[in-house]
Amino acid sequence: MSEIPPIFAAASNIHSFRQIAVQHGDVNNQVVLVPRDSRVRSLADLKGKRVAYVRATTSQYFLIKMLESVGLGWADITPVAVGVSDGAAAFSRGSVDAWAIYGFPIQRAIATEGATILKTALGFLSGNYIVSAHVDALADPAKVKIIGEYLTLLRRAYAWAAAHSDQWADIIARDIGVSQAYVRDQFARRSAPYELRPVTDAAIASQEEVARVFAEAGQVQRKVDVRALWDDRFNPVIEKAL
Predict the structure, then answer these.
(1) What is the pLDDT of residues 164-194, one digit of tens each?
(2) How many helices (H) and strands (E) does the chain have?
(3) Integer Cα distance of 130 and 123 in angstroms
(4) Contact, 129 vs 1, CB < 8 A?
(5) CB atoms inside a 10 Å sphere around CB 21
(6) How far is Cα 20 from Cα 234, in angstroms, rounded to an integer?
(7) Whole-angstrom distance between the N-terminal and C-terminal Cα of the chain?
(8) Strand residues in the chain grouped as ranges (E)
(9) Quick check: pTM over 0.85?
């Protein structure tokens, strides 16, 4: 998952998981899209506009950060919280002026709707995505061993995928049922290939910044201590996997 869902989980009284590794990768597959012939030419032009996003996800976070970068706040737009499919429908029929979204809906909207990318999340997102484990699993030595084996395989798999980009794109397209052209386009635009990384102070600090942004935007109602969610016991396993 991204860095964002744990922020909302941490704001509750039940912390049933720990964050044990970081998948670092592409942020150019997260963007603000505008329709064909839109008069929105810059982030500042979003003021007063209806902007679709997916609540409690990276799209909400980078939208907040993008608005901040041009001196705007959440109250300066009309935010429209929708799921991915509903967002696609709203964007297609012109019910929203812009759409903060991620993944292959970007390629689909460009190819079928003539949409354009107003801004990618490069410079607004860290590229960190979190691997987590349930606390009950972490208390079971047999499951801890299996988790370590999984992380070893995952790190090696990402290394293989980075070295075999075209072959990996074809596998993804076939397995999830999207156009091969969409996957190859996303790969061509990516800011970085995915890799598995250990838990670091920098990763924790990145998530603390996410928590700060959501708190200042009034999206979480209590102080969040994300550091308590991290567990670095698998760092040696990840570091020696390659």
Answers:
(1) 999 999 999 999 898 999 999 999 999 999 9
(2) 10, 8
(3) 19
(4) yes
(5) 27
(6) 7
(7) 23
(8) 17-24, 30-34, 50-53, 78-81, 98-102, 116-120, 128-134, 195-197
(9) yes
